[in-house]
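Milestone M4 deliverable, item 7.
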Amino acid sequence: MSSSGFYGPLNYPVARRDDSVVDDYFGVQVPDPYRWLEDADSEETQEFVNNQVKLTETVLQECELRDKLKNKIGQLFDYPRYHAPFKRSNKYFYFHNSGLQQQDVLYVQDKLDGKPKVLLDPNQLSDDGTVALNTYSVSEDANYFAYGLSSSGSDWATIKVMKTEDRTVEPDTLSWVKFSTITWTYDNKGFFYGRYPPPDDEQTRDAGTESDANLNQQLYYHFVGTDQSEDILCWKDPDNPEYSFEAAVTNDGKYVLLYTTENCEVVNNVYYLNLSTLSNGLEGFRGGEDALPFTKLVDNFDASYAVVANDDTVFTFLTNKDAPKYKLVRVDLNTPSIWTDVIPQSEKDVLESATAVNRNQLLVCYLSDVKHVLQVRDLETGSLLHNLPLDIGAVDDISAERKDSVVFFRFTSFLSPGLIFKCDLEADVPEMKIFRETVVHKFDRSEFQVDQVFVPSKDGTKIPMFIVARKGISLDGSHPCLLYGYGGFNISITPSFDVRHIVLLEHLGAIFCSANIRGGGEYGEKWHKAGSLSKKQNCFDDFISAAEFLVSKGYTQPNKLCIEGESNGGLLVGACINQRPDLFGCALAHAGVMDMLRFHKFTIGHAWTSDYGCSDNEEDFHWLIKYSPLHNVRRPWEQSPDHSSQYPATMVFTADHDDRVLPLHTLKLLATMQYVLCTSLENSPQTNPIVGRIECKAGHGAGLPTQKKIDEAADTYSFMAKALNASWID
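Output delivered:
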């Protein structure tokens, strides 16, 4: 890759290498000279981080468009945003951000056209907006609001309880909650939640900066108005410390389901408990040591099961059992071995969700070539009643209970910031009206277009990719291009609106592309499996093929092409620049899993082995070592004929309270890249910068305040603009 718009080689800080740290993996010796960077609290690690922060700031000061991007992104961010309202009892609740508020605010109103009142404003809980809502639930009678708060982006949450009528915060305080939902029982006395055992140093620990593995989650029930020490232990499994648990109360309030998951695999076990059979209710288990008497329904981790509805003992589930694209099935608890299909698997489309509504109907959402389709179906028979008209885009925030005849949902696309629809199912033909429309000031969507192409990958598999650009662009290779990807954990990357990308399109003349590579859920479980474990290389091949397509068709050229990804997508970027450094002019890797040999040892990393495998297993080790970003940094000029090839301008990102993908991944890769490419030899051909952006009081991305989003975007894309020699367009 030719040199970027930066002015030459940097003076990189020298980081100590400890060559004595070598691991033996099945006879293969693997050095880990920066193992010391795994200790986030050490003075040496802090010095390394401080040196990197100073270096990155000197690079960003070279980026002439930083202030312009910050101002323009800030201006465009300032538009009112809404979530779909949801109903509990006689009240409606919805989230709203007036534009530049750091966190969304929760409102409540007695009727849809009633005067809204603020229920919870997280912006009042910290000066800098770094306290965020993590999880929440409203009781069935709408009298109580239980909510989990997280600080500085950590996954840890503390649950509080508020009276909705007068916003009185109860003394209830539930600590060491992580990866948990809040599920009320219909008697409104309390709720189920999951928590971990408190650590020995809980009084002094800064939650979110530790690296200990998250083990032995337990399911509890909390009675409102009591101390956490009195909570009922509902379920634990000390023989399987990596399992996690979630409760779901059925729509009739009669049953509670227990879901058990082993890792990030889309499979779970299902147990149930008829609450009405408890002679003394849940109160009878206070002070006891025994778990609740759940009954097994599914106990072999053979598929994913999610309850949709029940009529007494007859349950309807969404499942991928013998259906990689999912289907709806029904079972009677009295005959648990007999399961019948209600909506069979589609030949082509993925059944993403099903919501019981209007007493005896279903609102089902399909993903068809990465575009959402909504249908109304009969709950009993599964037969199609209506197709709901939608543009090309994505649906989320589906809001309704089984008794409701009115459904709300939000629609977004690359060029539409959000339409909230109100759909009345009482009419013979469902009546869809726009309830709220989000408008971005001075953005004219008619100037842009979205195309979907299908790119052949290395093995011939067709990979869908969206291309967003100004109408009528010439395909002469002159355009800066940002290519985004993820490709993992059965997660589908659907069309979404992002003002940061709009600014790039409008003012840098850029093209934005989103490649739906294998490993995601875009075409169901087979698509997911085709990009995981021993087949993970397919993800990188797909992404590289998408990049080559953009170059071959004249959308861009290598020195104008930037790739970006987050989390598993950060791994994607790290692997691709190792494998094809010549193909990209810039790389942006956010919170990437970069050390594929040790990720499972920290916090929730053990859950990712379902997608990646684990280096403790010999077979897995041999595929992991082949693509692990940390272990495959090479000097590309040693392989190029003219010895001039180098890595693209690269910025890697992490945050000090990221307790999901720990900073150690980014720090170790950064030290390795700077050593191998820049500091270990004189007159290195690597003149493109290799730097890291390290955020304070932030985590893996959730709950990031608006101003931090704007600041990060300005740094990120001014770096990209400089690397790609992009000019500002007024």
